[in-house]
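TA notes, week 10

Several of you asked for a full example with nothing omitted. So below is the full record: structure tokens for the whole chain, then the designed sequence directly under it. When grading your own attempts, check the secondary structure regions first.
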């Protein structure tokens, strides 16, 4: 099979128009964070996606044989590696991995590791959504360990805990979009100075009204960088 296309022409993308910049983070930057990246980006929100793992790990032929890649390996290269034979194509199409690589390649070149991203890029984000509590903890810990920047701006880290499979990622991607639009509308209404104080109430209301399907609480940590 042909290698999936890479980045689309710049002028084919909807231009971001949001006041807030969002970061979305999972472990390998290929399933949960990439689903959110696509959904938020298609809605016109400014977004970038990341992973916090040491490697990009994809399901292999058994639980003991994951396919492991370094962050920065192009999605196209991952796709080609797992589509080398007809048997590989059949297996990795059936388990959905080739589709994840194809989608990734259509959005950006390669998975990005949060911890390796320079602070100059991280500080552009106003809100960071992590899709698992341990990832939330890793993001918060990383922000607290970085050397403070001159501007020392607030970054809101939020956790929407999500099982790591395409079905749950799709559901939670839509929920993340609803939350991001709530936050975007809030900053449009009250401005950035009031925004910091508004978020806890917004998250409490969102928890009650939109997270009835899960007992897991939406986590929030205000960090500065």
């Amino acid at each position: 099979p042909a290698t999936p296309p890479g980045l689309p022409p710049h002028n084919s993308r909807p231009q971001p128009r949001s006041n807030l910049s969002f970061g979305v983070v999972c472990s390998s930057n290929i399933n949960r964070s990439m689903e959110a990246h696509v959904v938020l980006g298609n809605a016109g929100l400014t977004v970038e996606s990341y992973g916090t793992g040491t490697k990009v790990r994809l399901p292999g032929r058994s639980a003991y044989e994951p396919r492991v890649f370094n962050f920065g390996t192009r999605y196209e290269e991952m796709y080609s590696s797992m589509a080398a034979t007809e048997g590989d194509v059949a297996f990795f199409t059936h388990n959905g991995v080739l589709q994840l690589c194809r989608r990734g390649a259509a959005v950006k070149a390669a998975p990005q590791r949060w911890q390796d991203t320079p602070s100059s890029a991280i500080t552009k984000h106003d809100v960071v959504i992590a899709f698992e509590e341990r990832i939330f903890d890793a993001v918060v810990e990383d922000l607290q360990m970085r050397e403070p920047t001159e501007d020392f701006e607030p970054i809101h880290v939020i956790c929407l805990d999500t099982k790591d499979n395409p079905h749950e990622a799709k559901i939670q991607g839509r929920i993340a979009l609803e939350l991001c639009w709530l936050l975007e509308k809030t900053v449009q209404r009250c401005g950035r100075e009031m925004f910091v104080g508004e978020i806890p109430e917004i998250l409490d209301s969102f928890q009650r009204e939109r997270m009835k399907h899960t007992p897991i609480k939406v986590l929030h940590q205000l960090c500065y960088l």
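Strands lie at 21-26, 46-51, 56-58, 67-69, 127-130, 154-159, 219-224. Use that as a sanity check on your answer.
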